[in-house]
Amino acid sequence: MIFALLAVLIVGVGARDQLLVAQLAARQGRHPAALVLALASAAATSALAAWAALALTAQMNGNARLFFAALACGFAGLELILARPPKPPAEPTHSLGAFLIVLIAQQLTDAARFLVLAIALATRAPIAAGVGGALASMAVVAAGWLAGNALAGFGFRPLRRWLGAAMLLAGTGLALRALGYI
Questions:
Q1: Distance CA 130, CA 115 (A)
Q2: Is the predicted pLDDT of residue 167 greater than 90, yes or no?
Q3: Which residues fall within 8 angstroms of residue 176, CB to CB, at 6 or more apart?
Q4: What is the pLDDT of residue 91?
Q5: How sure is the predictor about 43, in pLDDT bands with cuts at 50, 70 and 90?
Q6: CA–CA separation, 89 vs 85, rounded Å?
Q7: How far apart are alpha carbons 43 and 97 in whole angstroms?
Q8: Can you tell me the distance from the alpha carbon of 26 to that of 17, in angstroms, rounded to the nearest whole number?
C-alpha cells in the first residue's frame, strides 16, 4: 500500500487530472461538488486498475505477471514523457457531468493508474495497491482543487520527463527480470 501511495503521489504532481481540477477551481471557484466528483473519480479509477490487476493475477504465472507489470510501468513512463499539460479551456463548461467524463477519461490513461496496475501485479497485492493509489490520487486532485491558479505557474514538464525516464528504466528492468536475463 505504501509503495502505491508514494508512487502515485510523486507521479501525480502536475498530472493532467490535477491540472484540470485546478483550472476548473481557478475559473469557476472551488465548488464542493466538483471536489466530490474528482475524489470519487480518483478512487473509482484506482479501484478499476486494482481490479484489472486482480483479474490478471488470477490467470498468470509469476513471469507473465511480472512482464505485464513491466509493460504497465513502461506505459506510465511514456505517459509521463509524452503527455502535455492541458491548456485552460477558453470557455469552461459549467456541467459537472462533462467535467466528470473528461476527468475519468484522463485518469484511465494516466501514469498513476498504470503504476497502480504495475505495483498490484508485481506485489500480488491488488487491494493494498488500489487503496494506496486511491488515497494518493484523491490527495493529488484535492491539492489541485485547493491550489487553483498557483499550479499554473509551475513548470512540471522537466520533472515529469525525468520521472518518465525512471519509469521506463524500471519497466525495462522488470521485463528483463521476467524474461530471465537478470
A1: 10
A2: yes
A3: 182
A4: 67
A5: very high
A6: 12
A7: 17
A8: 14
Nearest to 74 by CA among 173, 177, 182, 180: 173
- Residue 53 is which amino acid? A
Cα–Cα distance, 109 to 132 (Å, whole number) = 18
Q: What pLDDT is recorded for position 60? A: 86
Contact 5, 132 (CB under 8 A): yes
**Distance separating alpha carbons of residues 41 and 51, to the nearest angstrom:** 15
What is the tens place of the pLDDT at every residue in 135-162? 999 999 999 999 887 876 677 889 999 9
The residue assigned the cell 521506463 is: 168
Better-scored residue on pLDDT, 93 or 77: 77
DSSP for the chain?
Answer: -HHHHHHHHHHHTT-HHHHHHHHHHHHH---HHHHHHHHHHHHHHHHHHHHHHHHHHHH--HHHHHHHHHHHHHHHHHHHHHPPPPPPPSS----HHHHHHHHHHHHHTSHHHHHHHHHHHHHT-HHHHHHHHHHHHHHHHHHHHHHGGGGTTS--HHHHHHHHHHHHHHHHHHHHHHTT--
